[in-house]
Amino acid sequence: MSRVDAVLLLGVVALQPACPLEAPRCEQRWAASIPLGTVPNDVALGECGGAPVALVPASGDARLDVLELPCGELRASVLFAPEGERAATPWAVAVDGERAWVTLQGHDEVALVDYCAGEVLARVRAAEVLELVEPLRLSAPQDVDGDGTPEIEVRRMLPRAPQAVVAAGGVAVLAYTNLLEPGLAVDRPPVLGPGLLARFDGEATSFAPHTVVLPCTNPQGLAWHDEALWVSCTGPLGPTNDATVAALGVGALVRVDPVTLATLEEVAAGSFAPGTPAILDTVLSGEVLVVGSLLRPALARVADGWLVETAIGGAAVDSIFECARMDAAVGARAVCTHFSGDRLLVVDDPIDSLHVAAELPVGAGSAVFRGAQAVALGTPAARARGVGAAVVLGLSAELALLPVEVLP
């Protein structure tokens, strides 16, 4: 029996009583993980009538699936219709009570959803035109400012390609990458507008967001805890001559005011290409960020204006897409997804330095890996059913569940 089988079978024992007696037995589905839709990119946990559910955007299917836990039955599926030839491409999801915010990258919108009912409450886009300091040149004309005229040289643009989202208390904060062209070859690098943050108030009748231009480009992740709101920017990423992806500029981690979105602190990240960070409260060091690199097997500790990188095992070109803060009861700890290793890294900050305290397998971890990509830690309702964490395996389109007993 492999380590993976041992961990998953632990979950079978732990979660067997969680399903109602009249529900189908879910042991085999647990052991094999829960199948997902096409190109899953994110996961969040919520509750419907006190029962835990997982919300997973299936980007390739233009829908948000709501799965009952731990067995994975489909409770609801919210479909986002295309606009002409443009697919919605739902990307990230954030739960706020009984509602969820979903970024629709392909439509430049955010959707507010009643996920238990499977209904879209609103779809809104940031409509404030950005005036660019320096014009951008495209390879083919696009109407990026909404005036009806396609342009090669861009001086004004509407916010494009929302990606990361966090939400709390009826408010959502979105990060727009403003990606105009993806960069498909060395001689055709990506074309990016400025990074942008937008704050949406779900209770406001106008629903118009407050937007702020960031001092960095290509924002990839957000972390919000209490009064701390951080955004990670990779800078432009593009192909190289050896068919890998590299940083073509510099990145940064930026702390902003959660209300005004004004920049409070900026930490240089160079070519590290930070993913989604986790905010820790340490006894000795105060607030510390833990963040992984999208381009190499490395973690970084960010505190007092400095980013200090720590190498970990993995392929030369690897991704640590996301870190998530663990419950404060276990100390200053985070879990981070290791893409090629098919595992979660449990990371703590005991004495001003990062330490990988444990590695939790969530897939095969072999040459043919499944791709641990996004993680959501168990809510109280999920933990009551034995679910400690849910991990999206992006390459195999599965949701792996880790039982409470496995987490430190």
Give an overview of the whole structure.
This protein has 408 residues and is mainly β. The chain has a single domain (3-406), classed as Methylamine Dehydrogenase, Chain H (7 Propeller). Helices cover 6% and strands 49% of the residues. It contains 3 helices and 34 strands. The strands form 10 sheets. It has a 4-stranded antiparallel β-sheet with strand order 1-34-33-32. Strands 2-3-4-5 form a 4-stranded antiparallel β-sheet, with no helix packed on it. Strands 6-7-8-9 form a 4-stranded antiparallel β-sheet, with no helix packed on it. A hairpin with a 2-residue loop joins β6 (90-96) and β7 (99-104).
How does the SSE layout of this entry go?
Layout: H1 3-15, H2 27-31, E1 34-35, E2 44-48, E3 51-58, E4 63-68, E5 74-79, E6 90-96, E7 99-104, E8 109-114, E9 119-124, E10 130-142, E11 151-157, E12 162-168, E13 171-176, E14 179-181, E15 191-192, E16 196-201, E17 210-213, E18 219-225, E19 228-233, E20 237-239, E21 245-247, E22 251-256, E23 263-270, E24 278-282, E25 286-292, E26 298-303, E27 306-311, E28 323-325, E29 333-338, E30 343-348, E31 355-361, E32 372-377, H3 380-384, E33 387-393, E34 398-403
Antiparallel strand pairs: 1-34, 2-3, 3-4, 4-5, 6-7, 7-8, 8-9, 10-11, 12-13, 13-16, 14-15, 16-17, 18-19, 19-22, 20-21, 22-23, 24-25, 25-26, 26-27, 28-29, 29-30, 30-31, 32-33, 33-34
